[in-house]
Amino acid sequence: MSFGAERVEIMTEIRIMGIVIDFAEQQKEKFDLLH
Predict the structure, then answer these.
(1) Residue 15, Cα to own-chain centre: how many angstroms?
(2) Ordered DSSP codes for the chain
(3) pTM of the model
(4) How far apart are CA 9 and CA 14, in angstroms?
(5) Could you give the CA distance from residue 2 to residue 26 in angstroms, rounded to a whole number?
(6) Other CB atoms closer than 10 Å to residue 2's CB: what's the count?
(7) What pLDDT score was predicted for residue 1?
(8) CA atoms within 13 A of residue 13's CA, in its CB half-sphere
(9) Quick one: pLDDT band at residue 24, thresholds 50, 70, 90?
């Protein structure tokens, strides 16, 4: 059970990192458009 919980935690971290990276890239594109 503990192994399964650890895996879910890792998957959640990966998903959060992906969202953060997507958001950062969107912000960069907006910034590039402004300048």
Answers:
(1) 5
(2) -HHHHHHHHHHHHHHHHHHHHHHHHHHHHHHHHH-
(3) 0.62
(4) 9
(5) 36
(6) 6
(7) 59
(8) 6
(9) very high
